[in-house]
UniProtKB/TrEMBL annotation:
Cross-referenced InterPro entries: AH/BAR_dom_sf, AH_dom, Arfaptin_fam
Listed name of the protein: Arfaptin-1 isoform X5
Location(s) in or outside the cell: Golgi apparatus, trans-Golgi network membrane
Keyword tags: Coiled coil, Golgi apparatus, Membrane, Phosphoprotein
Biological processes per GO annotation: intracellular protein transport; regulation of Arp2/3 complex-mediated actin nucleation
Origin species: Delphinapterus leucas (Beluga whale)
CDD domains documented for this protein: BAR_Arfaptin (cd07660)
Major site of localization recorded for this protein: Golgi
Coiled coil stretches, renumbered: 152-179, 287-318
Domain of life: Eukaryota
Biased composition (Basic and acidic residues): 51-61
Biased composition (Polar residues): 1-16, 26-37
Matching Gene3D superfamilies: Arfaptin homology (AH) domain/BAR domain (1.20.1270.60)
Length: 370
């Protein structure tokens, strides 16, 4: 019995040894038969750390073999063990040729794109079209008597008076220009007539004195006419500045005020219509947006109304001052001319600092124009 147990023990211990020898021989045979792959081998140093010299060499060979046109700033291949499900992970750095950036091992981030100018223009056109539609609808509604309009009675009365006065001042200006043209022609004729009388006074001895008197009279009338013509032209220039610059500038502000009033009424009507409708999740954002637009146009309307009021006030003060001086000038010059009071006529021009041009030098020479 002891022999059998010893044999059994011997057999039990010798069988694993035999299997281990077989496994070692099989592994050596497989190692000899399979080709060596540098990427699959993981050598270990004496300290137990993985030697990655082969891995760096493989990465260097890979970089050399990659085309230069790929533009990759950094390429790295990391090998893992045989037990991992991934054979290798390729990590790439930032791509220099585009706007896309990538952190190491992180997600791809796209850079913010600039706004398209065409889309901005399209948005401006859309807002302009919507505003024009609302204003046109408001104007048509007012003309048909269906829409309501905001009216400032006091300001509207002042604007109507200003427009009526502008028409009357334009009529005065037109008549004064006609008078200046006719007076210029008369002065020119009197000057020519005086020269003709003077010539005949020298050639007709029997009528020397008669022609001489008439020549002196016509020349004096021509001189006084030139003085009156200077006063009238000064009056025309001042009234023209008042009508076509000062009043016109105020009326331009009035036009802007009326446009702001139409926009204000248009958005006010739009807000009133939305408030009369149902209030739900769809209409509340529209009502809020309409309220914001209405408030913005209301502020613009109030500002333009204030500007018009201030300009009308200053215009009235300036108009009274300018017309007072110009009407006094016109009256005194006309009265002195037809009364034959040459001294008073000249004194009137000195009072208003009017300088007359010498006869024959009305137009500058070609050298002065250059």
């Amino acid at each position: 019995m002891s022999d059998c147990s010893n044999d059994t023990t011997t057999l039990g211990t010798s069988k694993p040894a035999t299997e281990e020898v077989k496994s070692n021989s099989e592994e050596s045979t497989m190692a000899q038969e399979s080709p060596k792959n540098s990427a699959a081998e993981i050598p270990v140093t004496s300290n137990g750390e993985v030697d990655d010299s082969h891995e760096h060499g493989f990465n260097r060979d890979l970089k050399r073999s990659l085309p230069a046109g790929l533009g990759l700033s950094e390429t790295q291949i990391t090998s893992h063990g045989f037990e991992s499900t991934k054979e290798g992970v390729i990590e790439a750095g930032a791509f220099q040729g585009g706007q896309r950036t990538q952190t190491k091992g992180g997600p791809v981030i796209l850079a913010d794109e600039t706004k398209n100018p065409a889309m901005e223009k399209l948005e401006l056109v859309r807002k302009w079209s919507l505003n024009t539609y609302k204003c046109t609808r408001q104007i048509i509604s007012e003309k048909l008597g269906r829409g309501s309009r905001t009216v400032d009675l006091e300001l509207e009365a002042q604007i109507d008076i200003l427009r009526d006065n502008k028409k009357k001042y334009e009529n005065i200006l037109k008549l004064a220009q006609t008078l200046s043209t006719q007076l210029f022609q008369m002065v020119h004729t009197q000057r020519q007539l005086g020269d003709a009388f003077a010539d005949l006074s020298l050639k007709s001895l029997e009528l020397h004195e008669e022609f001489g008197y008439n020549a002196d009279t016509q020349k004096l009338l021509a001189k006084n006419g030139e003085t009156l013509l200077g006063a009238i032209n000064f009056f025309i220039a001042s009234v023209n500045t008042l009508v076509n610059k000062t009043i016109e500038d105020t009326l331009m502000t009035v036009k802007q005020y009326e446009s702001a009033r139409i926009e204000y009424d248009a958005y006010r009507t739009d807000l009133e219509e939305l408030n009369l409708g149902p209030r739900d999740a769809n209409t509340l954002p529209k009502i809020e947006q309409s309220q914001h637009l209405f408030q913005a146009h209301k502020e613009k309307y109030d500002k333009m109304r204030n500007d018009v009021s201030i300009k009308l006030k200053f215009l009235e003060e300036n108009k009274v001052k300018v017309l007072h001086n110009q009407l006094v000038l016109f009256h005194n010059a006309i009265a002195a001319y037809f009364a034959g009071n040459q001294k008073q006529l000249e004194q009137t021009l000195k009072q208003f600092h009017i300088k007359l041009k010498n006869p024959g030098v009305d137009t500058p020479s070609w050298l002065e124009e250059q």
